[in-house]
Amino acid sequence: MPSTTNQRSITTGLAVLSVLAMAYSLIIVQQILLGLLAVAALWGVYLFWRLVLALGRIASALERVALELADGGFEEDRTERRERTDGASTESAARPLEPER
After folding, report:
1. pTM score, two decimals?
2. Residues 6 or more apart from 73 whose CB is under 8 A from it?
């Protein structure tokens, strides 16, 4: 997970770059649409990259869950299951076997 300082510096840098692109398009080129397209492209690439990172984190988390389930469940589930089987084994040992009919 990226640090918030790094994320904040990237967002600040993009904001400054957006303001510079808009200023250039208004003052030098005198075409506002060109500046808006440049700013939209910058933020579009940034948001796409954030989406790719988020999907990667989701995939990693799902892989961890799948591995835990393949190993027999999460740690809490395993301890509960162990307690139930321990309790069942002591009950069956204490109870005499019934003859088959």
Report:
1. 0.61
2. 81
